[in-house]
Amino acid sequence: MNMSTLAAFALIVVAGIMNGSFALPTKHVSKWNFENIWLQYVVWTFLILPWVIMFFLAPQIFTVYSNTPPLMILVMILGGLLFGVGQCCFALSLNLIGFSLGFVINLGLSIFLGFSLPLAIQHPQQIMTPFGLITLSACILAVIGLILSNYAGNLHDKEKHELRSPEDKQKRLYGLGVILAIVAGLSSAGQNLSFSFTAQMQQYAIHLGATKMGAANIMWPGFLTCAFIPYALYMLYLMHKNKSFNKFSAKGTGIYYLFAIFMSIFYIGSVFFYSKASHIIGALGPLVGWPLFMVLIILVSTFWGWRSGEWSGCSIKVKHTLWLGLLGLVLSIAILGYSSVFHT
Questions:
Q1: Of 322, 321, 332, 334, which is closest to residue 139 (Cα–Cα)?
Q2: DSSP codes, 241-281
């Protein structure tokens, strides 16, 4: 593994830690509703920060977009809209089934589909190579680990279900949370597919004088602006339905605005670092980098979920099942690292 590949892997590790931690402030905004914090988050994350950052990294962005083939622009727009819908589902799933399981289910699908779709569509010649087979086996192992983690979560939910009152049982809606996390996972896989499909935009940006970091992230402002539309509309609908607009001015909530900015910086930072790492790796960057990025997010979010007490009181069976699933994820990271030896 050469130095550039090591640098790329280091960036992915940082990106995974940031992404797995970005939603932590949602546990500390008790005076705001669900929709208040997530609307603030999405305004900064999808609309403001990507364009501000790109203004400095690649001010040629509009010229790049105007010279991009219409099909790539269409992929960016549709991918962004679908991703926005998926992110709504993801935020709801966190509210229903918890921090760690929401990430586990969402990213489990994202790992496998985010790797396999670009491989099958754009690099079919790599499927039967050592790189393709080893990376695919790591993705399968990661998904097995996620299935075990989800099973542990289901067991833990049933254990807590027996201790809850009838009103609490109705509020839990575990099954709906799982479905929403699955939809979010499908949209996240589409995020990586969109990034992989529009890679040619990066070459346009470099040709026009953009920085390498700017070129690596040239798609995201347009993509995330499209994602903003369905996400913001849904949060505004919830605010109207729940009459929660006035909560923005509630006493003692000033720090919540900083929490939203913190969430945005960590999320956008993770996306930009992942994109830069993928650019360093080269044409197959979205294949080897994406599953590693996703697994790291899951491990970090599970750690925070454990620290916050989401797994408190669980039985020995639940703990053993969860740790077995996490072991599968750790092994998949080792295999993904090994696959880079065969990356050409």
A1: 332
A2: HHT-GGGGG-TT-HHHHHHHHHHHHHHHHHHHHHHHHHHHH
* Three-state DSSP class for residue 182: helix
Handedness of CA 171, 300, 190, 216 (dihedral sign): positive
Contact 252, 31 (CB under 8 A): yes
Domain residue spans of the chain: 3-23+39-342
Nearest to 342 by CA among 289, 290, 288: 288
Residue 82 to residues 79, 189, 208, 229, 342: CA-CA distances in angstroms?
5, 10, 30, 10, 34
Q: Which residues of the chain have pLDDT under 50?
A: 167, 169-171
- Give the HSE-up count for residue 151: Cα atoms under 13 Å, Cβ half-sphere: 14
Query: What predicted TM-score, i.e. pTM, was given to this entire model?
Result: 0.76
d(CA 207, CA 222): 19
pLDDT, position 107: 67
**Residue whose entry in the numeric block shows the structure tokens 């690649």:** 58
DSSP string covering 89-146 = HHHHHHHHH-HHHHHHHHHHHHHHHHHHHHHHHH-GGGTTSHHHHHHHHHHHHHHHHH
What is the Cα 142 distance to its own chain's centre?
16
Q: What is the pLDDT of residues 233-276, one digit of tens each?
A: 999 999 999 999 999 999 999 999 999 999 999 999 998 998 88
